[in-house]
Amino acid sequence: MSGEMRPQQLGAMRRAIWRSWPILCLQSQHRLLPSFCASTKAATMAASSLPPPTHHKKKDTVIVISGPTGAGKSRLALEVARRLGGEIISADSVQVYRGLDVGSAKPSAAEMSLVPHHLIDILDTSDDYSAGAFFRDARRATQDVLDRGCVPVIAGGTGLYLRWYIYGKPNVPQSSMESTLAVWSELADFRENGQWEEAVELVVQAGDPRARDLSVNNWNRLSRSLEIIRSSGSPPSAFALPYDAFCEQHDTDLTEAPSSAGNYEAREMEYDFFCIFLASPRIELYRSIDLRCEEMLVDTGGLLSEASWLLDIGLQPRMNSASSAIGYKQAMEYLLHCRQNGGESTPQEFLDFLAKFQRTSRNFAKRQLTWFRNEKIYHWVDGSKPFEALVQFVCDAYHGCSARMVPESLEMKRENCVLKSRDLKTYRSMNRVFLGGDDCSHVLNWIRRTQSK
After folding, report:
1. Which of 160, 187, 318, 438 has the fewest C-beta atoms lying within 10 Å of its C-beta?
2. Do 307 and 341 share a domain, yes or no?
3. Domain tally for the chain?
4. Do 208 and 313 lie in a common domain?
5. How far apart are CA 357 and CA 46, in angstroms?
């Protein structure tokens, strides 16, 4: 037993590796001057005893700021970009659509006048967008920003978009008009008749058993899976993901040579990514989300008006990416119900819709936290800390005036964002705007005027 590691020691070692992982995924900080970074003096002296590293071209730094919905990542990204002379590249799957402003929490015209923004309002609501398209567009925008001598600041919470953007996209067969139309036609009868299970079984029999794991009526993903099978003879899972390969490589490096981990350089990455995840304790986040949902509905010219417009142009809930977005889907379903009732709705029906909207948004934030908890390249910071301190930390780290380790005063422990089962069972929404029927009377009057079609 003397040669075995005690559980306490093993846990401490794992926590140390977890805490240092973002550093392992970024370029070495040996370029920082001791006069500006006294905290790195010991590390610099230790590194001097190592063999000279192979010289590589210095990579351009790209700042990535993410977080769950309602965490305040857009505000932080805006101020960081303003101070650093940067430009923001949106990593939001809904902000790409023209006309979907309030429900996507799109930056205001005033905010976009302060700092240039990219990948906002680039598509019509009838178009679909994918992680592959985002990789192409965001990488192109990043290089354009760098070529102008500015700092790229990526801001958004769409996890798959950011994963592909940082690590690369899988080398799956490219879509073509012919293959897309062929697969779309193959699934057309199933889609028109609402036969989701039968369509899934067709794709499973074609060679992709993971199609059963797709969310119901996710026709875009199902069609893409079948398209890959028809084009290559293999399912999507047969194609290696750069992210998985990267993680496997790092797991090996940490296992075989933990003492040299601090000098690791992620040469396979095109840029020097400095990634921030803005988080807060789950209950506090949930309260913020609930209020945000109310604020999107209190002005009838906001989310409800945008959802009504989607219905007016012929879209139905979950018909495509835009009409499947959280908030828009629930609002479209509610307004359809109101239209079927001649433009009438009761206060209770509206409050039920609001509760569903809030619950769906909270569940989405929960999924985001779970996703990013496994993305070890991110530094987790506490969004409830003073805003100026958060901005200063990011700017100082970018300039090399501090090591890229979050100070304890700003750090958010990943385990602190885990909602205890007791809290989950006792959590209840506490509306601060729509407290009762009288508070939604103006909304019901608007519905009566505009939805009696």
Report:
1. 438
2. yes
3. 3
4. no
5. 54
- Domain with 114, as residue range(s), is 14-38+57-172+241-281+372-420
Whether residue 152 is found in the same domain as residue 259:
yes
Q: Which residue has the higher pLDDT, 169 or 88?
A: 88
Can you state the angle between helices 303-312 and 441-450, rounded to 10 degrees?
A: 20
307 lies in the same domain as 381:
no
Instruction: Please provide the DSSP assignment of 178-243 as one string.
Output: HHHHHHHHHHHHHHHTT-HHHHHHHHHHHT-GGGGGSPTT-HHHHHHHHHHHHHHSS-GGGSPPHH
For residue 48, tell me if it sits in a domain.
Answer: no
pLDDT digits (tens, 9 = 90+) for 3-48: 444 444 444 444 444 444 454 444 433 333 333 333 333 333 333 3
Query: Which residues does residue 273 pair with via DSSP β-bridges, in sequence order?
Result: 62
Given phi > 0 = left and psi -120 to 50 = alpha, else beta, which region is 378? beta
Is the residue at 137 inside a domain?
yes
In-domain check, residue 8: no
In a domain, 6, yes or no: no
SS3 at position 379: strand
What single-letter amino acid sits at 325? Answer: A
Whether residue 230 contacts residue 182, with contact meaning beta carbons closer than 8 Å, is answered with yes
Q: Are 71 and 152 in a shared domain? A: yes
Tokens coding 438: 């009288």
Exposure b/e, 177-189, CB count within 10 A at least 16 = b: eebeeebeebbee
Q: Which three-class secondary structure state does DSSP give residue 121?
A: coil
Residue 420 banded pLDDT, cuts 50, 70, 90:
low
CA 317 and chain centroid, separation: 22
The secondary structure of 294-320 as a DSSP string is HHHHHSTTSHHHHHHHHHHTT--TTSS
**Model pTM?**
0.77
User: Whole-angstrom Cα distance, residue 403 to residue 387?
Assistant: 19
Output the six-digit token pair for 358: 């809030």
